[in-house]
Design brief:
The protein is mainly α. The protein has a single domain, classed as Glycosyltransferase (Alpha/alpha barrel). Helix content is 42%, strand content 8%.
Length: 430
């Protein structure tokens, strides 16, 4: 086993982004290693050098903007890279330390970070007119990374692990209920208070927010808060079949595939149930519905098929960042590599078909930090040569979870998370 991993790493080093493209005899293990190694470079080589945090994108018109949620994903990717020995372990620890030191310095809003910060000024950068303060969902994505880092570091750097813990304990989840018990609310601003009034409801990418809020040792929420908001939206229960595949939760045709990724980078869905749904099977069904839709190809888009599918929010060849999921006008022939690749934990065979097709048959889709953000064979040029932290992070982390379960093991070892899941009515089936 060790020799095969060494061989995979050597091949990856030879062929990662700037080397000669290998022939098809490259093993799937070596190919996965290549993709994981290159994708993690977005969070090492392309991280903001002063803060260590992940830049929002590689073509940001707003300046040197770093993203909190994407940095949480990146923190987990950095851990994976160190464990894979893509760089020395001490370098990985130093990168986590730089990120944590920066997170301590950034202005927080009742413990929550803003969605974006200007890395040069270290000031919050407004995501939208009234979104200039705390963003609880982005904060949850960051805390998912902090808790994984705490568990990774606790036996070798107790002081740094304690700082990760301190930041987690400082998030005032209960403040974001507006003093009630009916919901968590996404935003709070010093200037606009709860003006956006955006209840966090599901089923979507935000489940991890309720899990963390229920798990908090300092500012917890009740199960009632979760039941009264997350489960009562118009797009929570489904129960329909699409292409013969039953979808218990979620909107029509499942919605964008990042719903299957963001909350599940640390939280292991394997066998996770709540008396109604097995979350691994729910996410697998969602992924297979996307694949079946591409094979059906009702709009006749170029290239769709068993080896070219996966629809999620990403950049678009013409209109910028938008959703491309089935059932919407934005489904315009654009496939986002992150969608199928990050679903490899659910559909390893089917996701590898897409990964191989992109890498071997569409080499222009792969660049210095892994696969570019979007591909549309019906457009010219067919590849959007952009990178986004929130798309690169899930690819790297989910490939690692597929290969070793590393981030699932770290996050799942947190005693608070085990207690919080039980509090909300979740359990792991045998």
């Amino acid at each position: 086993m060790k020799n095969s991993l060494i061989a995979a790493a050597l091949l990856a080093a030879l062929f990662c982004s700037c080397g000669p493209r290998p022939q098809r005899q490259m093993s799937d293990e070596a190919l996965l290693d290549t993709v994981e190694r290159c994708t993690i470079k977005y969070f090492t080589d392309f991280a903001d050098p002063a803060t260590g945090l992940a830049r929002e994108r590689n073509n940001d018109a707003n300046g040197n903007i770093v993203t909190i949620g994407g940095s949480g994903f990146g923190m987990m990717a950095v851990i994976a890279g160190a464990e894979r020995e893509y760089y020395p372990r001490e370098e990985g620890v130093a990168r986590i330390a730089k990120m944590v030191a920066s997170l301590e310095k950034l202005e927080r809003f009742h413990g929550a970070w803003a969605h974006w910060y200007d890395a040069d000024s270290m000031q919050p950068f407004s995501f939208s007119k009234y979104d200039d303060g705390g963003d609880l969902v982005e904060t949850a994505f960051m805390v998912q990374g902090l808790l994984a880092a705490r568990q990774w570091l606790k036996d070798e750097d107790a002081a740094l692990a304690a700082l990760c813990d301190e930041l987690w304990r400082g998030v005032e989840w209960s403040w974001y209920t507006q003093g009630g018990t009916d919901s968590l609310y996404w935003h709070w601003s010093k200037n606009y208070d709860f003006k956006m009034n955006h209840r966090i409801s599901g089923f979507d990418e935000t489940l991890i927010t309720y899990v963390l809020a229920a798990s908090s040792p300092t500012y917890p929420i009740s199960r009632e808060c979760y039941e009264a908001s997350y489960k009562t939206s118009s797009y929570y229960y489904n129960g329909k079949e699409y292409y013969g595949i039953e979808l218990p939760l979620g909107m029509e045709l499942g919605g964008p595939l990042f719903f299957c990724h963001y909350s599940w980078l640390g939280l292991n869905p394997t066998g996770l149930c709540d008396g109604y749904t097995n979350y691994f099977e729910r996410n697998k069904a969602h992924t297979l519905i996307h694949r079946a839709y591409a094979i059906d190809n009702p709009k006749g888009h170029k290239g769709y098929g068993a080896d070219f599918w996966g629809f999620t929010s990403s950049d678009d060849p013409y209109v910028g960042y938008t959703s491309h999921h089935p059932g919407t006008p934005d489904e315009n022939g654009t496939v986002s590599p992150t969608a199928a690749i990050s679903s490899i934990v659910y559909t390893p065979k089917e996701s590898m078909e897409v990964l191989r097709h992109l890498y071997y048959d569409m080499p222009q889709s792969f660049g210095p930090y892994g696969f570019y953000d979007a591909v549309n064979p019906g457009f010219e040029p067919p590849v959007v040569e952009h990178y986004l932290a929130i798309d690169q992070g899930p690819e790297a982390v989910m490939i690692e979870n597929y290969r070793s379960g590393l981030l699932w093991t770290l996050f799942g070892s947190c005693p608070e998370i085990q207690q919080g899941l039980e509090k909300l009515g979740f359990y792991y089936s045998k």
